[in-house]
Amino acid sequence: MAVVLVTLLVRALLIPVGVSQAKAEQTRARLAPRLRELQRRHKKNPERLQRETMALYRSENTSPFAGVLPVLAQAPVIGILYTLFLRPDIAGHPNELLTHDLLGAPLGTSLVTAVLDGAAGAATLLVWAGLLALMIAVAEVTRRVFRPAPLDDSPLNSPGMLRVVAAMHYLTAVFAVLVPLATAVYLAVTVVWTLVQRMLLRRRFPLPDAVSPGAGSVR
Question: What is the pLDDT of residues 100-133, one digit of tens each?
Fold first, then answer.
């Protein structure tokens, strides 16, 4: 419960980051047709293309890097939490957090370590199965709901690249098996929070192609 509550507190403090990202995503989607037109018109003149692109962003009071700095702002917080969950001792004292367990599964042991050491009992496997199932389900919903809009004449539309983009949604679940259970709990709560927050913010800041007549539906 301490891990969950700390995670919720951190995510609540980072709500402005999510709002900034949603606004930046909405702006990029709105400007995308005009940017494509600039690229088509000035593709043989890179310097002119750069000037016109920056002029477009200035006219809209935005930047191509909008939303990036807020993402970086949360890195120190995440780093501190990961350190807390990973270090066996803190300030010369044993990290008591990692001496506890969740329904019989030790918080300080990763799934890979438990399996390799032969310490993965039924309780450990059940707890990990539940967390991984939750993260995979959230990844699948995220992949379906927030599927990127196709771009004209873009290499990102190739089947191989689309498969790579889809697979990236499941990296959290892959990473989770390599870290202590305490970190996996943090990751599970984070992905659920992120999905719910993104769905709410998408309704508040809908993309141009996600608006249907009379309703703000989410694709």
Answer: 889 989 888 889 999 998 888 999 999 999 999 9
Residue type, 35: L
DSSP-assigned beta bridge partners for residue 215: 212
Q: Given the structure tokens 């800041």, which residue do they identify? A: 205
Residue 117 DSSP code: T
Residue type present at position 197? Q
**Chain-wide mean pLDDT for the chain?**
78
Q: 3-class DSSP state for residue 76?
A: helix
CB 90 within 8 A of CB 75: no
CB 151 within 8 A of CB 157: yes
The pLDDT tens digits of the residues spanning 29-57 come to 777 778 777 777 777 777 777 787 777 77
**What are 89's strand-pairing partners?**
94
Among residues 177, 219, 179, 170, the alpha carbon closest in space to that of 199 is found at: 219
- CA atoms within 13 Å, Cβ hemisphere of 48: 8
Beta-carbon neighbour count of residue 121 at 10 Å? Answer: 11
